[in-house]
Amino acid sequence: MLVKWEGIVIRSVDYGESSKVMTLFTRENGKLGVMARGAKKTKSRLAAVSQLFSHSYYLCKAGPGTGMPDLSQGDMLDSFRDMRQSLTATAYAAYISELLDRLTQEREPNPYLFQLLLHTFRYLDEGRDAEILCRIFETKMLIVAGISPQLTACVNCGEQREPYAISVGQGGLLCPVCLPSDPYAMAVTPSTWKLLRLFQVFDLERLGDIEVKPATRNQLKHVLRSFMDEYLDLRLKSRAFLEQLERMERMTQSDQD
Asked: HAMAP family per the record (predicted)?
């Protein structure tokens, strides 16, 4: 049986001398694996559509069981060429793809997540702020994983009293009265927790220009990564590379200053 899916390649692994096993995140069926036979051959018609991050229509042969479908042909919609040519944008795209891969189950349809991934890649391709796009994506994926920090009032008493700190252990904001209940709570600026709250409900399609100060960027990253490290058992190779790249960029910027 032939089936047609709209998908984005979030992982691609060589298989044998000439083939690839692709992991697609599809609009129709969520995440699934596909065999692209002969895709590594130079003149293969499957070479382009089997590349990492490719957005295409995929025509596949799917058997009656749960075996891996074979890719018959693909119709490229977007290769995100400009994103690929930027090392920084590519590193963020790889991290976003791996995060999505690790936090989703196979064949669980989620058109919202497909659209989120597609818009994120489009913005990366346009040269938009990769770091902020990543923070938005991380916030959304925490919600997918069942972790949604309480950012509207104090998680302990329910009162709205500023200035807030953020408690990873208690799962959200702590007001000054409740702050002693967590000696490890993180002091954050109002801009940080308000942006995090916005990211939780924000429709990425409406993204405009967001100016975020360096100190706020650092706090956003620290808070989100702290929640991920506390509640999710993830060791992402792409995250290690991304952090190394970020350190190199900070060193370069410091030398220029």
From this structure: RecO
